[in-house]
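Re: flavin mononucleotide structure - here you go.
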Amino acid sequence: MDARELLEYMPQLLNPSITRRVRAKYYFKFSGEEPGDYSLTINNGNCVFSEGLPDDPSITIDVPSEIWMGISAGVINPRAAMKSGQLKVKGKFLLLLRFNKYFSGDSKATFVPEGLYGETENEKNIRSKKWDKPKKVLGIQAAPRKKKGATEMVYSSLISGMKNVGVKVDTVYLAEKKINPCRGCYHCWKSDDGFGDCVFKDKDEMHGILKMIPEYDLMVFATPLYVDGVSGLLKNFIDRMIPLNHPYIFLKDGHSRHPSRFSKLPNLVLTSVCGFYEIDNFDPLVHHIKAMGENMHIPLIATVLRPTSMVALNSELHAVEAEKIRESISLAGMEIVKEGKVPRKLTKLIQRPILPKGHYYSSTKTWWKNWM
Ligand SMILES: Cc1cc2nc3c(=O)[nH]c(=O)nc-3n(C[C@H](O)[C@H](O)[C@H](O)COP(=O)(O)O)c2cc1C
């Protein structure tokens, strides 16, 4: 970004609430490496960039362009620049002091370069409460115990409901895949090729899965709750999803975001099981997956969560209850496809306590004893 572009960009960083009653004309008289005359005119919460000397500027900032760039980047102290005579100011000095406050980036949105997507089609639909029935679902089953545990029980019930209403479901069992952890080298973002050009592209199985993601309408993450979050397998997978985004950073609803490389991505459903009794054990997990969904333009639309997994889903001990829970989860799968949400009544059935809390503790003792 050069000095002119930097100023041209400033209107997008205007804080409309702070500048609601501000009228000011900033005149930048750039000398140095990129000489030029520019102005920023603030008028009651709006700002316009223009070239040339404005009529009647409120403040004139006379400075070499490279010094202003340094001040903007926070590497040159404006007071020191004034002291050394590089930065000269005429007019209302207070406007210089307030510059950072006025342009604090708390506006609603900044622009996104052409060919990238600040908001994907699926996000737009969710925002306008429009539900397009998914046709293709990609299940990411992230349990290290693969098909042996409670994660598979909830996952298989959920997708059987989805299949009942005609949806095609493909499942990836992460425990069967070779997916290296992200190295954080940003190769996928630095190379011009961009999408998928990860250092592990031909060395593991992530690229094949990543390429498939935009083809699906819905993704299901199925994970056991591990130390209040996702399993390591799922975290690994999520980190390796960053090539779906572009490195450019923009402002969306007051929050820094990366735009998507894709005009449409799937929405997301989370299903999980945990050993403890209380439903709030899932709070940090849901919070994380919701944030991740906003970050990756794959919004979380529904959750299917079941605590006391070892006790509740143990068919030997609680055959009837376990079956009822599985049926409710299957119905939730159908509702998600049809309506994009799980009715509250159904969530209550899925999460209903099978045992009083006191019995749960003695039950887990027996469970561990038999297990070990
Ligand atoms: C490493 C690890 C961490 C766990 N952390 C939690 C936890 O923080 N809270 C909880 O309620 N259960 C926790 N559990 C219990 C699992 O969520 C529970 O056993 C679940 O059924 C595991 O899924 P699986 O049956 O598909 O293997 C943990 C289990 C493991 C192995």
